[in-house]
Write a structure and sequence with these properties.
The chain is built from three helices and ten strands. With 123 residues, it is α+β, with helices and mostly antiparallel strands. The two termini are 28 Å apart. The relative contact order is 0.25.
Length: 123
């Protein structure tokens, strides 16, 4: 299982959750073009791979390399997560689960990501 963090965003069309971690998405089987279904239950947004799914993993090329992207964008997202909510994203085979994180955990995650970003800038 891989875990990443993101935030729920507010847009004019509703809420948005953007997932673009190539390694994590592909390790869970969410390759560019894969179809999936989205289910929102009890504060958890779940994405299940399904060849007949209603949604599709999009893609974008960066430096000639295709990378999968999931852009969840709907008013229903704001029914589950308020804008600005820190989210934990768990990737397991054929499933992605998105849930709100506790404030303490979100702060630790942000601090860790900041340290990693600063370290990579000094290399």
């Amino acid at each position: 299982m891989q875990i990443t963090y993101t935030k729920a965003k507010q847009t004019t069309r509703g809420g948005r959750v953007w997932l673009e971690n190539k390694a994590a998405l592909e390790s869970a089987g969410f390759m560019a073009g894969a179809r999936y279904n989205v289910v929102m239950v009890k504060g958890v947004l779940s994405l299940f791979l399904n060849p007949e799914g209603t949604s599709k993993v999009s893609s974008c090329k960066r430096n000639g390399v295709e990378r999968p992207i999931i852009d969840l964008h709907s008013k229903a997202i704001l029914d589950v997560f308020a804008a600005g909510t820190s989210l934990q994203v768990r990737y397991v085979q054929s499933l992605i689960a998105v849930m709100a994180v506790e404030q303490e955990e979100a702060t630790e995650s942000t601090e860790q990501q900041s340290v990693v970003s600063r370290a990579s800038m000094t290399v």
